[in-house]
Design brief:
Layout: E1 6-12, E2 17-20, H1 29-46, E3 49-54, E4 60-65, H2 75-88, H3 90-103
Helix pairs in contact: 1-2
Amino acid sequence: MYQDSIVLCSASKYAEKYYLNEDFDNLPDDVKKELQIMCVLFTEDVGGVIILEFDNQGELQIKTEAYEEDILYDEIGSVLKVKQLRENKKELFEQLEQYFQAFF
């Protein structure tokens, strides 16, 4: 069991930036690239911010948020997109959870 959640990566439409936690620099390059593309495309599509983090049980969580005054943020689209990511990237997410549990 882990103390707090640990951010894997995130992307922000507002800052137009992608972040990968340096603790995960040793992930394979293709995995890092896939995460970057996935997160950036998510924010380009629905706006706001996406955060992938491991909870205190070692499970990968996908969180989204947006500024309250952001009228362009697609809240319904973000829920649907997260569901789609969970289905389409299920194998990747399971492998990341195994990686996390092995190394953290």
